[in-house]
Structure formats: C-alpha cells, structure tokens
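Quick start: load a record and inspect it. Here is O-methyltransferase:
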Amino acid sequence: MASTPAGNDFAEISKQINGAVKAMALKCAVELRIADIIHSHNPPMTLSEIASCIDSPSPHGEIMISNLRRIMRLLVHNKMFSVSKSNSPEDDEDEEALYGLSNLSKWILHDSDASLVPLLLCLNDPHILASLHYLSQSVKEGGIAFNNAHGCNVWDYYALQNPELSKTFYGAMSSLTKIKAREILAGYKDGFLGITSLTDVGGGTGTLMYEIVKSYPHIKAINFDLPHVVATAPMYNVRVLHVGGDMFQGSIPKTNAIFIKAILHDWKDEDGVKVLKNCWKAIPKQSGKIIIVDIVLDPEGNGLFGEFALENDLRMMALHGGKERTETEWKILLKKGRLPSLQNHQSSNYLALYYRGLSTVI
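Running the structure step on this input writes:
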C-alpha cells in the first residue's frame, strides 16, 4: 500500500494489531537463553553456533535454523540484538549473519543484576494474559477481569492455586526492585540518615530493605508482607527482619518510617485509604515519615514512560481492579488517607510522595 494518509493509518493499526507478536518473540528468546548464549561465548555468533548451544531433544537441523533465523530477524529489527556480516567469502548465505548483543540485550540476561527476565516471564505468563481477554466482559458486566477469568483474586490464586506463578511474580518484583533501588538510594541521598527503623509495606521478599541497609547499616529494617510470601524470603542479615501479616488488618509493625513502593496502584481508592490509615497508625505522629514511590499517570501519555504508564493502568485494572493515578488523584487519595501535608518529586513518570519533609526519591 502506498505511503498515503490511508496507507499510513493502515500501517499504524497493523502494528497495534500485531503488538503481541513482539512480546512473544522476546519471550521465546528469553526461554531459549539466546542472549546468555551469545554473552557466554565469543560474540558474534552464527545461527548454527547459537542453535548448537540451545538445549533441545531434537537435532539442530534446517527447521530449527529456519525458525531461529526468522525470530532473530524480528528481534534485530526491534534492536534486541545486533547483526553483522562475516568477512569469510566462503561462508554460505545461512552462515553470513553474525549475531551479537545490543544495548537492550543486557536486560534479558538471566543472571544479570539488572535483568528483566522475571518480569517479562511474569507479565507474559498465559494465566496473567488471560485476564486481558476478559476486559470487555469487565466493561459490560463489572468485576475484575482476573477474577472473571480464574474464579478468584490474583493473591489467592498465587497462594492457593499456582505457587510457581507466585514464585515468578515475586522474583519479578525482586528483580525490578534491585534496578529501582539504585535510583531511590541515589535520589534520596542523605534522607535515610535520620531514620532508625523502617518498614517496607508489601515488601515481597525483602529486596528493597536489604539494598537500603547495605548503604545505611544503622537502620533496623522490617520487610512486611503476607505470611506465605515472607516464608519464602531469604535471610539477608540481622538488620532485616521478615514479618508476616495483613496491611488491611492493622498489623503493620511500628517503626519511625514506612516505605510503600508500587503497592497502592494494586488497589481501589477505598482500599488504598485503609492501607494509608494503617500506615499512619504505625508511625510516630510528630516525627513519623511515610514514603510512597509509584507511577504518576499523565493522561496524555507524555514522557519517557508515558505509554507504559497508560498500559500499566489497564494491567492494574485487569489484574486487581486497581489503577495508576494522576497527581491530582494522588492528592485526593492521600487527603482521604489522613496525609494532608504532601510534597512530591516527579521524574520519568514516577512519583515520589513523602510525608513530613523527606526530600527526593525517583
């Protein structure tokens, strides 16, 4: 189709219709450990060399090479890998392409500290994706899409029906937290110096508290989450204590500061208010601090992560009935949650909201 207004529109809608293929091709590369194979050998590598390192019960024949070539072609186009040509004139056409790592490849290395592999596998798990197929039903009939798809809420599903997916989810959160912790520590600088005890509400397996006490060993940190979650958490050191409980039941441990990152977007406003009020009860009234790190939604999708925030808002709606909030919506929520004194710092579509004088986060 020619490059006309109608042709351009057709091309754009075609990209959106085929959007899932990009994610599945990337998931395929992660499951085959292609980036790890190239990284652990002497890149660049030919398709045959890559294929020979893939764990497969069948011989590495023409079908595998053909399939692999087509997958790599799309991933190279999307800048996930680089490609160059061999200098050897005797190489046949199949061997000419030499594949290497790109700037994006480091994010899909399994053993990297900055790996997004767990997050990719979690968000593209069939059980998670199933909820998105129920969005239209949720619009017409109400209810939460995940609940409509599986007959229970996502937290019960993790705990009671699919512990492997639960492990994947909390692994994804831990991996993502390692990446964001660097920004939190860099942005907050000396803000933690006045804190002696700190509770991470909904802290998963405790990654954030561990990262904080490594830089601020004077802090006694508590990682607070559901009992079955903290039961699987690693024992870091004596400065990080795992405590099981329910943030809705008022069992948040009392410390002089509360950290709550990427939790409130899981919940509707009325539930978020309950959590904030319970956080308020757990800190000293005159000197206590509550730090919230979460996405701030730009309704127009502007900014580096603007489109991601819009997409994640739908994911929160589908999985939890939650939402990403605009800055105005954050202010309303915090006022209802008895946090009237609001300061904030916004960067890259993330919003750090802090109570009683904390400086910047991310």
